[in-house]
UniProtKB/TrEMBL annotation:
InterPro entries (alphabetical): Nudix_hydrolase, NUDIX_hydrolase-like_dom_sf, NUDIX_hydrolase_CS, NUDIX_hydrolase_dom
Domain Nudix hydrolase stretches: 5-135
Cofactor (UniProt): Mg(2+)
One MF annotation (Gene Ontology) recorded for this entry: hydrolase activity
Pfam families tied to this protein: NUDIX
Keyword Hydrolase among UniProt keywords: yes
Keywords: Hydrolase
Name listed for the protein in its UniProt record: Mut/nudix family protein
């Protein structure tokens, strides 16, 4: 049996929620698409350190990381392997300070966030926002 192992770029992202259950989405400068905050894991970097760093760099927010809600691998349009883990995150802050990587941010309902995000990111958002008893 010939098994091909994944050789992927790893991304760590957060479904950031306020106490009012609004979800943060940010718009990419590169193509105008909406996404959840996060980014690539550096070699030797701890996963949760990466998530705190990326969220701070992209939004200026401090968050509490709760739990992983989704993990997925895929191949992008260029044929490159990708792997991402999404975490449920909480913050009491509302003011977002964007990096140059993004042009806009919006705190929005789960439904609106899921409409504008990719299917994988929408799935992570739905899982992060489910009531505790159904998780």
């Amino acid at each position: 049996m010939d098994t091909q192992f994944l050789e992927a770029t790893v991304s760590i992202r957060g479904v950031i929620r306020r106490p009012d259950d609004q979800v943060l989405t940010i718009r990419r400068s590169s193509d105008g698409g909406w996404e959840l905050p996060g980014g690539r894991l550096h070699r030797g970097e701890a996963v949760l350190d990466c998530l705190h760093r990326e969220i701070r760099e992209e939004t200026g927010l401090a968050v509490a990381i709760r739990r992983p809600v989704e993990a997925v691998s895929w191949q992008n349009a260029a044929g490159k392997d990708r792997f991402a883990v999404y975490y449920d995150c909480a913050t009491d802050e509302s003011g977002v300070t964007l990096s140059d990587e993004h042009t806009e941010s919006e705190w929005t309902s789960k439904a609106t966030a899921c409409e504008r995000l990719s299917e994988v990111q929408a799935t992570a958002t739905r899982r992060a926002t489910q009531p505790e008893a159904t998780k």
